[in-house]
Amino acid sequence: MATLPRIVITGVGLTAPNGNTLAEFRANLLAGKARIAEIDVRHMGKHPAGVCDFDATRWQKRKEIRNGTRVGSISIYCSREAVVNSGLDWETIDKSRVGVYLGITEHGNVETENEIWNISQFNNDTKYWTHHHNPRTVANNAAGEVTMNMGITGPHYTIGAACAAGNAGLIQAAQMLQLNEVDVALAGGVSESIHTFGIFAGFKNQGALASHTDPAKASRPFDKNRNGIVISEGGAIYTLERLDDALARGANIIAEIAGWCINSDATDAVLPNPDRQAECVRKALERAKMKPSDVHIISTHATATSMGDIQECIALRTVFADCPRTKINNTKSYIGHCMGAAGALELAGNLPSFQDGIVHPTINVEDLDPECAIPGLVINQPVSMGSVDTILNNSFGMLGINSVLIVKKYGIA
Amino acid sequence: MNKDDVKSIVLDIIRDIAPDEDLSALKHEVRLRDQLTLDSMDFLDIVMELRKQHGIEVPEIDYPQLASLESCGEYLLPKFKAKGK
Questions:
Q1: Do A63 and B41 touch (CB under 8 A)?
Q2: Shortest CB distance from B41 goes to which of A62, A67, A127?
Q3: CA geometry: angle at A186 spanning A188 and A398, to 5°?
Q4: Is the confidence metric ipTM above 0.90 for this complex?
Q5: For residue A237, which of A177, A188, A199, B22 is within the disulfide window of CB 3.0 to 4.6 Å?
Q6: CATH number of the domain at A7-248, please?
């Protein structure tokens, strides 16, 4: 098999419930600052949720915001910021060679619920159903809004991959760059899930919706008293390029994509399968030509459900049984579960470790569940490793989709 | 209700659907699309808001009647009056 081009990250744009830039996000992760609000969910009352407060008008006209979707605004904000951060000369690059690949958990529920409510105010007469419904709900909406806002004429689509979608967007982009389909990719994951009551009701009736008197403590992966998921919105989009192209333009290389794997449990719609998760991790390591002990940080997917956290810990114990240097953390404890954006945001939160050598902890662990007491788990206080060269990012989703992405500091053999 | 009242209603709708536009110097006799960045979806928004807010129906064949603020006033005034407004 021919040697494929190496792919690097040269820009990051994000919005998380606790930060609208990577610097702000990282500072809050190191300071242990969660930011979870309590929102009024239609039909359901108040629930904890991660809400982003980026300024959509920074990159969109008010009419664009009105006609588009929330996830479209998130995607545009993150994409624009990723390009700025990359230092690309956006005005002169060939927009037909730019691709947009965005992971999503689901799409269309927000608009559909809104319209059902809307026509209920008019005796359910469908002549009051908005003509904006179809462009707002097509599955490519998030990526398509980015192309229209930024004048990108290359390919765009979304990758539906449940909560594994953030990694899946990045993997798709890396593959398209390697195939020379595009020269620049804007890729990652996005979510507007907090604006649909259906996801709250679904998780609640599944016994998997978090609650706590203090919203900031509601998301608590690995804690013995965890009681479910805090649903959040957000986005993280990266500028990806082939290494040679990035070097040629003197780009700042943030990280290199080292390996990945996506596989399927093929067992249960909601209960993760640790055997398949472990297999996914091993295959990603194999592609990266790494041993488990080469991984310095494992960014876990754990969502604070009773079984999901344990299943992931089983998988990690299996693969990383003898890796004393490897540290393990979790970012959902700060920002909740950003669904399609989760994997992409959690990777972003860890990337500055390549510069500062610090591993941010998982917070809100007051009573560590013995079944989640895996060696190397960084709890409540950051840990300095001195140097961090590799990050393995887990992101798993319903219907048994597993995604693992490994990135390394550029220049590491 | 008179024609100016109708035009004011239409202007309020346009203000909502095209919030970036400066409507202060809008010429009433000139086609809206020649003065504002409005596309076909925006005109459907005007039709929808007339329906939702005022119970006014504009059949598709009559859409050209909404071309300018003046023509909106001419066309819509009888419909508002028929609603007892």
A1: no
A2: A67
A3: 25
A4: yes
A5: A188
A6: 3.40.47.10
